[in-house]
Design a protein that fits this description.
InterPro entries: LRR_dom_sf (IPR032675), LRR_N_plant-typ (IPR013210), LRR_R13L4/SHOC2-like (IPR055414), LRRC69/RLP (IPR052595). It comes from Triticum aestivum (Wheat). Residues 1-23 form the signal peptide. With 393 residues, the protein is α/β, with parallel strands linked by helices. The chain has a domain at 14-146 and 154-158: Alpha-Beta Horseshoe (Leucine-rich repeat, LRR (right-handed beta-alpha superhelix)). The protein has four helices and 27 strands. The protein has helices spanning 4-43, 212-215, 359-362, 381-385, and strands at 68-71, 74-79, 86-87, 101-103, 108-111, 125-127, 132-133, 148-150, 157-158, 172-174, 179-180, 198-200, 207-208, 222-224, 229-233, 246-248, 253-255, 271-273, 280-282, 295-297, 302-305, 319-321, 326-330, 343-345, 350-354, 368-370, 376-378. The strands form five sheets. It has a 14-stranded mixed sheet, covered by helices on one side. It has a five-stranded parallel sheet with strand order 19-21-23-25-27, with no helix packed on it. It is elongated. The chain starts with a helix and ends in an 8-residue tail after the last helix. Residues 81, 105, 127, 129, 148, 150, 172, 174 line the site of one 2-acetamido-2-deoxy-beta-D-glucopyranose (NAG).
């Protein structure tokens, strides 16, 4: 008898909790609906816009609208590649609180990236590449779930925010083809979670050195910094990496010499691109220990001395360009005896000597072979007659 009111109270509590939960969820999906209409209002001035088909119709719930993915009636992903979106991404997008994926590449989005975008705490994938976004990258990051950020091929300027380096789960960072300035954040790669796999910052106006944390990252597979104004020496740790597969530092102002590091064990490095810098010294024989190399481009630096014969021992080397340097002496015969080489340029150095007469057989895969402007290659009659077999540019 006595416990009756208590039970009643409990029932009242439970039902009110249930109705509160229902209200919360329905108000949330109503907010998602309102927010999609807000996005449509701001991003679809073009008659071709894919958002033209986002119309209020009770028989087509918003979760079925093109490009919208829901989980339990809540919007979790927006996939609108090449969808003729234009205008400025509105700040109301931060009201899609469960959004984890934004894929808007290949549109005409312009103006700034709203700082509110970084408030989406579930956001793990952001791809706004190939738009016309301007201004700087907002530095008020609180979406710590971010794993992929691709803002490549826009018109962004200003610095790369230091806060990007604090994202513990960041795996892919692509900011190539913008007008970014300043230096690479010192924090990039410093996160202890070792999630960073690919960093592509090519074709910007970045200055300063490669930060130590980035060079020491033990998860990094791709580092592409070509065509910037970076300088300083190349950190030896990059040559000691057990993860790095592609290191592209060409068209910068790196100085010093190539670190003479013998890789720990089988280095996975497949491409080393150092062309067009102010590197000097000799080409270290230790490069021959990078047995996975397929592409080795060292052109237009100030390397002197001879070509190390160890390079010829790289089993699957396909492209070797050491043109426009100060190299001298005779080219070791094994360099002309690499079965997988398709591109070989020794042009504009001070090599002397004679080409092996059977070169057409010992370079069976060659497609491009450039020798011009060396000190004195003795003419070899066989070369002239074999011109059509391997084009001499
Ligand atoms: C909100 O979710 C409920 C089910 O949880 C669904 O019946 C309703 O249609 C949704 N609202 C909209 C606007 O889609
Ligand atoms: C809603 O969608 C249904 C099914 O596609 C269509 O028949 C109907 O004309 C639409 N109503 C409006 C108002 O667009
Ligand atoms: C959908 O949401 C539920 C909980 O809200 C979660 O457990 C589930 O993993 C989600 N499904 C997907 C495919 O994201
Ligand atoms: C988007 O457009 C680009 C350039 O025209 C094209 O390469 C790409 O395949 C298109 N993507 C899709 C999903 O249609
Ligand atoms: C988010 O939604 C709330 C409630 O619907 C609204 O008051 C607010 O203006 C929205 N925020 C933005 C940035 O649009
Ligand atoms: C971003 O989208 C473009 C176009 O689909 C794609 O090529 C690119 O790989 C995407 N970026 C990432 C990091 O996945
Ligand atoms: C980072 O990734 C891990 C493993 O996938 C996950 O458990 C964790 O929740 C993520 N952290 C954030 C902030 O999203
Ligand atoms: C950088 O620009 C060059 C020249 O325009 C281009 O060949 C290269 O693909 C670009 N690289 C990236 C990663 O955008
Ligand atoms: C290369 O790695 C080894 C072991 O990880 C370390 O002892 C050595 O100092 C490193 N060398 C360079 C140049 O970073
Ligand atoms: C490149 O670096 C050298 C010093 O190492 C400096 O004198 C020169 O001005 C730099 N060049 C450019 C184009 O920044
Ligand atoms: C490096 O290459 C040289 C010459 O090819 C070889 O003698 C040496 O054993 C190699 N070292 C390692 C650690 O692979
Ligand atoms: C070229 O290499 C092959 C196999 O590596 C070897 O048998 C041959 O003697 C070499 N020829 C010359 C001219 O060095």
């Amino acid at each position: 008898m006595c416990d009756r009111p208590r039970r009643l109270l409990a029932i009242v509590l439970v039902t009110s909790l249930l109705s509160f939960a229902a209200a919360a969820s329905s108000s949330s999906n109503a907010t998602d609906f309102e927010t999609l209409l807000c996005l449509k209002l701001h991003l679809s001035s073009s008659p071709n816009s894919r958002l033209g088909s986002w119309v209020q119709n009770n028989s087509i719930p918003f979760c079925s609208w093109p490009g919208v993915t829901c989980n339990a009636s809540r919007v979790v992903a927006l996939d609108l590649e090449n969808s003729s979106l234009d205008g400025r991404i509105p700040s109301c997008i931060s009201n899609l609180t469960l959004l984890s994926r934004i894929h808007f590449p290949g549109n005409l989005l312009s103006s700034h990236i709203p700082a509110q975008l970084w408030q989406l705490s579930r956001l793990s994938y952001l791809n706004l590449s190939s738009n016309s976004l301007t201004g700087s990258i907002p530095n008020t990051l609180s979406s710590t779930s971010l794993q992929v950020i691709d803002l490549g091929n826009n018109k962004l300027s200003g610095d790369i925010p230091e806060s990007l380096g604090t994202l513990r789960n960041l795996s892919v960072l692509r900011l190539a083809r913008n007008s970014l300035t300043g230096s690479i954040p010192l924090s990039l790669g410093s996160s202890s979670s070792n999630s960073l796999v690919s960093v592509i910052l090519a074709n910007n106006s970045l200055t300063g050195p490669i930060p130590s944390a980035l060079a020491h990252s033990s998860s990094l597979q791709v580092l592409n910094l070509v065509r910037n104004n970076l300088d300083g020496e190349i950190p030896p740790a990059l040559f000691n990496s057990t993860s790095l597969q592609r290191l592209a530092l060409g068209w910068n102002n790196f100085s010093g010499s190539i670190p003479a590091v013998v890789p720990n064990f089988n280095s996975p490095l497949q491409a080393l691109i150092l062309s067009v810098n102010t590197l000097a010294g000799t080409i270290p024989p230790t490069l021959g220990n990078f047995s996975s190399l397929r592409i080795l481009l060292l052109a237009a630096n100030s390397f002197k001395g001879s070509i190390p014969v160890s390079i010829a021992k790289i089993p699957n080397l396909q492209e070797l360009d050491i043109s426009y340097n100060l190299l001298s002496g005779t080219v070791p015969v094994p360099i002309f005896n690499m079965s997988s080489v398709t591109y070989l340029s020794l042009a504009v150095n001070s090599f002397i000597g004679e080409l092996p007469f059977d070169i057409g057989y010992t370079l069976p895969s060659i497609q491009t072979f450039i020798l011009q402007q060396n000190k004195g290659w003795r003419k070899n009659p066989c070369i002239a007659s074999q011109r059509n077999q391997f084009p001499v540019h």
